[in-house]
Amino acid sequence: MRFEYKGVPVSDGIAIARAVVLRPVDIAPDPAEIGPDQVEAELGRFAGALAAAREQIEALAGEAARRLGEEQAEIFSAHLSVLEDPVLEETIQDKIAQERHNAPYAIAEGIEEIAALFAQLRDPYLQERAADIRDVGRRILENAAGVARVELSCLPEDCIVAARDLTPSETVSMDFAHTLGFVTELGGRTSHTAIISRSLEIPAVVGTAGVLEHLAGGETVILDALDGCVVVNPEPEELERYAQKRQEFLRGREALGALRELPAQARDGKCFELCANIGGPGDLAGAVKYGAQGVGLYRTELLYMNDTHFPDEEAQFAAYREVAAEMGAQRPVIVRTLDIGGDKALPYYAFEPEENPFLGWRAIRMCLDRTDLFKTQLRAILRAGVFGKLRIMFPMIISLDELLAAKGLLEECKEELRARDVPFQADIEVGIMVETPAAVMMADVLAEHVDFFSIGTNDLTQYTLAVDRGNPRIAARYDPLHPAVLRSIKRVIDASHAAGKWTGMCGELAGDVRAAVLLAGMGLDEFSMTASSIPGVKKQLREMYLSDAQALAGLALRASTADGVRRLIGPREGI
Ligand code: PEP
Ligand code: MG
């Protein structure tokens, strides 16, 4: 039967393929005691589940190494070493033989006991084992309970991945070569599914409430991520119509490619910098392809999330050097220091639960407490800068004290490298992300101590409006065109200019074609976005006169509501 759903289109494109559904099954093993005659059978069941897990993980490691590279395969080596741990095997066997539990119950209990022990340890390298143990334990449990697992890291054919939501660690291990589209029930424009799908140019529709009700997996799905529409089991006539619409979209995208070599210059001469947001070296090809003049945001947390422990200085140096060298001295790269916590977890580090994680121990707050981790990263960035041109940017700053403390640690790192006789980029520029109302209000003070600002509208909107950026219930209130946000942006730009500094923007608003003229008119110097959005924004900027844009911005800043702003910039949906 045919079903149609509406959602939020967050990464342009159209995909037609069969659905693969990611739906973790709730396994509730029976705690009842087993009879002595059942012990042997349950021990056999456990041994079978363990052997099957080993085979599955070995196959995945091979596939991951072949398709995604050795680095991605490493997580599976860690999983294999968990399987080989005799303590784990003996603990579960004891629970079956001595405590008389059936295999699934013994596995669930045994795994949680051991994982909890590791999670309590202070050493992050040992804590990381807890995540591995739980992951492997879930696999053994599924085998014992006869529950099939959907393997997203090794998809057999092209498909559209459907899920309630996708966590960063799920997407990190996903087989993107066979993922033609994403549809999720939760999420908004700035959710991680959205950001990752845009950077990989995979069409995605999020916030598609109820779609999983009619998806078991294997159904044909049309994903229209231009209009935010998802059709399950479409009619033959629709399939044809959408295949045509897809071709038209691809032709249009190619036409925008012709702008690649042209500058982002307004008709009356003003030039803007258009840069790419990246999550790692893998995104550079896209940045270069779409003509990015640099990287305005390198989200280094992905390097940390895609690992089994905190990456050391050498591992980080290798990644940053690759990015610096690839972009070269003419295309600067802004490296954001670790922005973890809030909604971004690490598989190997147990953050203490907090009442309000978005207001909690995250980003620069964590780095200023864990100076060992922070300085490791700063040294790696400084060293890599020699191979191109890097800039450093601190996230979530709320005060001059934090900025000065971070800069002080940077100077310490320079001293250490000097003492070690290691070459580094001594003249590295330092900036901050403006993501908090505090940074907006203090922009004049902060501007004296930075080389640049970059406005993170994803968080700035969240904190200015006190609207959780990931909560679908209040998604309509999350509006970067709210006059409070626009006035904040203007205040920051003016403060930086008064101090002779420049301001960029790396939140999602910077890549929204419908806001480009308005932001240009407000004086924004640099726009950093998903690489594939660059041609569309460039087209807007090349077609405008700066004087018109300034007049428009003047009116928008006097508007009393977001709808008033929208009326000024045209009949636009989606921002
Ligand atoms: C932002 O907050 O606008 C931003 C770019 O950072 P992130 O989306 O990674 O929080
Ligand atoms: Mg942010």
Structure, described:
The mean pLDDT is 90. The two termini are 34 Å apart. The strands form 2 sheets. The chain has an 8-stranded mixed beta sheet. It has 22 helices and 16 strands. It has helices at 39-68, 70-83, 86-97, 103-120, 124-145, 168-172, 192-200, 236-257, 284-289, 301-305, 313-327, 363-369, 371-384, 400-420, 437-441, 443-447, 457-465, 483-498, 516-522, 534-543, 546-558, 562-569, and strands at 3-6, 8-11, 14-22, 159-163, 179-184, 204-206, 220-224, 229-232, 273-278, 295-299, 333-336, 390-394, 429-434, 452-455, 502-505, 526-529. It folds into 3 domains: 3-23 and 151-255, Glucose Oxidase, domain 1 (3-Layer(bba) Sandwich), CATH 3.50.30; 36-145, PtsI, HPr-binding domain (Enzyme I, Chain A, domain 2); 271-569, Phosphoenolpyruvate-binding domains (TIM Barrel). Residues 190, 297, 299, 339, 435, 456-459, 506-507 line the site of phosphoenolpyruvate.
Topology:
Layout lengths: L2 E4 L1 E4 L2 E9 L16 H30 L1 H14 L2 H12 L5 H18 L3 H22 L13 E5 L4 H5 L6 E6 L7 H9 L3 E3 L13 E5 L4 E4 L3 H22 L15 E6 L5 H6 L5 E5 L1 H5 L7 H15 L5 E4 L26 H7 L1 H14 L5 E5 L5 H21 L8 E6 L2 H5 L1 H5 L4 E4 L1 H9 L17 H16 L3 E4 L10 H7 L3 E4 L4 H10 L2 H13 L3 H8 L6
Parallel strand pairs: 3-4, 4-5, 5-6, 9-10, 9-16, 10-11, 11-12, 12-13, 13-14, 14-15, 15-16
Antiparallel strand pairs: 1-8, 2-6, 3-7, 7-8
Helix pairs in contact: 1-2, 1-3, 1-5, 2-5, 3-4, 4-5, 11-13, 12-13, 13-14, 19-21, 21-22
The site of phosphoenolpyruvate has 11 residues, from strand 10 and helix 17.
